[in-house]
Amino acid sequence: MSDSLTHSAAAAAAPRPGPGRRLVVHGLGLAIFAAMPAIAAAAGDPFVVSLFTRFLIYAIAAVALDLVMGYGALISFGHAAFFGLGGYVVGIIAHHAAETGTIFGLATSNSALVVWPVAIGLSALLALIIGALSLRTQGVQFIMITLAFGQMVYFMLVSLEVYGGDDGLLIMERNTLPGLDLSDPTVFYYLCLAVLACWLLLCRRLVGSRFGMVLRGLKQNERRAVNLGFAPLPHRLAAFVISGAGTGLAGVLWANYALYVSPDMAAWSKSGEFMSIVILGGVGTLFGPVIGAAVFLGLEQLLAIWTEHWMLVMGPVLVAVVLFARRGLYGFLVGERSHD
Amino acid sequence: MSTLLIEQILNGLQYGAMLFLLASGLTLIFGIMGVINLTHGSFYMVGAFCAAYAATATGSFAAAVLAALVGAGLYGLVMELVVIRRLYARDHLDQVLATFGMILFTNELVSVVFGRTPPFMDIPSFLTGTVALLPGLSYPVVRLAFILVGAVVAVGLWLLITRTRIGMLIRAGADDRAMVDALGVDIRRLFSLVFALGAVLCGLAGVMTAPLLAVEIGMGERILITTFVVIVVGGVGSVRGAAVGALIVGMIDSLGRAYIPITLYELLPPEIASTLAAGLVSASIYVAMAAILLVRPRGLLPARG
After folding, report:
1. Which helix (H) or strand (E) holds A169?
2. For the residues A315-329, what does the mean pLDDT come to?
3. Is A13 a residue whose pLDDT tops 60?
4. Which residues, 6+ apart, have CB-to-CB distance to A224 below 8 Å?
């Protein structure tokens, strides 16, 4: 155990020379994502860009979830709540902008520079509240209490009749960013790609930092970490809040992508999807969830084209991945010792 | 006012009885083998669909009960042998993903086998009508019958667990699986048995729901989440906890439905009250759960160990 700690520490301190497989996988992945709009344009199928935008947005949420799940061993089954909240903040502000031009007496803004930080901040606040309460429990209780908080948020959104209740809320236009035309699908795609890249870099720094080390030390052996003088709660809570903010950001992008928010964004099955994506891609790796998001959503799309009863196939595929590909797809692609 | 209270308490008892059927199996499975089984709600759905289908096909309530118990029990047994069995040694994450996959599969399977339009099940003729419990308070016979069934099953389960050899092994297995294994008991077979029993109880809960609520795809997940709340409130792994948790959640839900709107309308302007009431009613059990966990993080009556 301590061996793998020093191993990770060394890996974080300096990029290891050696197996180029990881480099190939990362490079190839980045190249595919970067070139996708050009490929789609060449193939004359703009739908592909839309599909890949979805991959990117889900990947942001999945990376955020893996931050607590893979590095903190905190299995949160309620992360869709932050996804939903992030989306609803965008939707609600847009709704008031269209109706009255003010929200709670304040002037509304359609600028991403205003709306997005508010949405992310509120998601972080919600994560602080849910995390502070949930982290009193551990293990299976933690899974279930996060699930319950997720359901609370879901029911609150359903009961918001002014904002469409069950039916959700249509959004008239995407938020604006100076210098960029977000209504252009390709521009929006590249924005999502840039956001994902920044988010990955941030998480990588975080995981490799002293904070990340403590988090992983707590995961491996809580008693040892505590005896070394590290308090579990502040580290775990901070990770939970950062993760919630990241998932909220994904929700913000989703609201802008779909131009529609509904309580389903916060439903428990969405949390299950995020979790499936992380596990499919590889728990405890930052690039695994990106692969997981592309494969999960891509498979869903392909199967749905093939048969109306695609879940009849999707379900057993997930079971098979659990049973036979234990390190997830990233571990399968990169091979031995697949932490990153 | 007081008849409303009594009526809601009876409704809470009935809902609690149904929740107990689901929660006792789920918590036994978790307590003994440490498996988080998200498909538990699917057995309930399978039971309800089998019951409604058999009732429509034969017109007999007995056939519906039989179909639900056998259908849910068999499906549970097959699931244990094919999938769950391979998950004992895995961590919770793997179990959550695999059983999440099986939910997707089961939902689609049920809609392929029984069709997309939800079947409808009538209340059997001998359970229709109401009975006057008190002057001014008449209560549906069918609900009283279900309370009775729940109580009988709860007592039966309690006797099974506390008074029989199988029950002794179940309790021992929940406390220390390795020790029971070392004593020469085939813990895997014991677990298959408990798992199938859990599925049969789900089937029974399915029959009890089919005539009262809509039988539909996805009903299993809704109740599963509530069942989790029951288990967490009561204490994971303990059947007594499941019973206490089921009663508490049943009561909060049914009393909340009656009294939260009344109270809010008295205190607040109607437009705010209606929005807030709908949300609070749905969220009341989760709020209660959070409150209980704040005081007792392991639930009210946690299993030892």
Report:
1. strand A169-170
2. 83
3. no
4. A217
Chain B neighbors of A310, CB-CB under 8 A: 108
Q: Measured between CB atoms, which of A310, A311, A322 is closest to B98? A: A322
CB atoms A275 and B109 under 8 Å = no
Closest B-chain CA to A156 = B279
* pLDDT value of position A4: 45
Q: Which of B296, B211, B301, B250 is nearest to B22 (CA)?
A: B250
H or E stretch at A107: strand A106-107
Its ipTM equals: 0.82
Q: Is A113 exposed, middle or buried (0-12, 13-18, 19+ CB in 10 A)?
A: exposed
Size of interface A-B (CB pairs under 8 A): 137
Cβ separation of B96 and A143 shorter than 8 Å? Answer: yes
Instruction: Report the predicted TM-score, pTM, of the whole model to 2 decimal places.
Output: 0.87
Contact A160 B100 (CB under 8 A): no
According to the model, what pLDDT value does residue A14 have? 42
The gap from C-alpha A273 to its chain's centroid, in whole angstroms, comes to 11
Would you give the distance in Å from CA B56 to the centre of its chain?
A: 24
Burial of A7-30, coded b for 16+ CB within 10 Å and e otherwise, reads: ebeeebeeeeeeeeebeebbeebe
A269 touches chain B (CB under 8 A): yes
Task: State how far residue A6 is from chain B, nearest Cα, in angstroms.
Answer: 24
